[in-house]
Amino acid sequence: MNRDRFPQLEADLGKLKENLAALQERCKDSFVGIIGVVKGVNAWPEVVRVYDGMGFSYLATSRVDQLKKMRGTGVQTPLMLIRVPMRSELSDVVALADASLQSDPEILRATDAEAKRQGKTHGVLLMIDLGDLREGFWSAEELIDAAVEVEKKLKNLHLLGVGVNLSCYGSIRPDKRNMQGLSSLALEVEQAIGRELRFVSGGASTSTYMVLDGTMPGRVNNLRLGEIGLVGRANYGCDPDFTHRDVFTLRAEVVECRDKPSFPVGQLTVDAFGHVGHYEDRGIRRRALLAVGKVDYGDWADLRPRMEGVEILGASSDHTICDVEAVKDRIKVGDILEFDVNYGSLVNLTNTPGVELVTKEEKAQ
Length: 365
Ligand SMILES: *Cc1c(COP(=O)(O)O)cnc(C)c1O
What we know:
365 residues; alpha/beta; TIM Barrel; Lyase, Ornithine Decarboxylase, Chain A, domain 1; 2 domains; eight-stranded mixed β-sheet; eight-stranded parallel β-sheet
């Protein structure tokens, strides 16, 4: 970690902890527990340590390499894989994760066989697809059959519960209807296996609003939360007033700052990515060129300049172009500009080796 290297992404661990604690308290009031999802920051060890201290039932990610990273840093909380496993990775999944999401009877049997081989019991959460069309059993009957098979026959699996994923592919909003669907499915599974399920998991950050406005059906007792803890908000109107939106700060260095025309000069064709650009002729303007680009954060529209008067105009792989006409007396070559990031850019920034990751705590030392 080098504080003088840019581009740099800083995590304010104190603010993150406050976000997680505030969400945990509100969920607790509705008898909803949290599985902490850390894939949005590529299981960044210092960030994971904050999650690890929260007393969540599980920490979760969608990728085996991140599970490995967490095992390597001595995480205490049990680990869950929240992408349905590939058959080809089952030995790693069973070795590294205590539990996984599952949606296929064959993979359940293969996971059981692998757990037996490793002398382990592996927890499974069976996913139902209630319309979003990503993972999950489509038929409730099939899911119940699988649940009974896990309970009665697959001795090295433990059925933890049922879950649903929404608003990922099909952009389906979590609502009373699909949450009640999940609740009644849970009841049916419980009747079929003759015991209560530990988890009835009602989705991700986009389901949080139902906890906050008190509309989450009683049987739903768990959410798997990533985005809302990390960046303080989620889609579909989940904009709590008790979360920090600025846990993460992107810092980039100005490598050129001079007056230039705002409209490109010459024959307009397509940019480096084959796209046709749109340019507004505003005359000669001061512009700052930053040494950070699409390779680092993905889409420049996912960044928001902290300094008022700075406007992002566009980007290429390794450069970002900003209009700074309104603040031209305040910016020069070598300066560092700060940006808020959203979830999409956070995922990118933490998955590329060119971005220096630093934490606020360490800065104070
Ligand atoms: C990513 C993911 C989550 C967490 O999603 P957020 O929107 O970041 O809260 C939960 N469940 C599953 C299955 C996921 O893939």
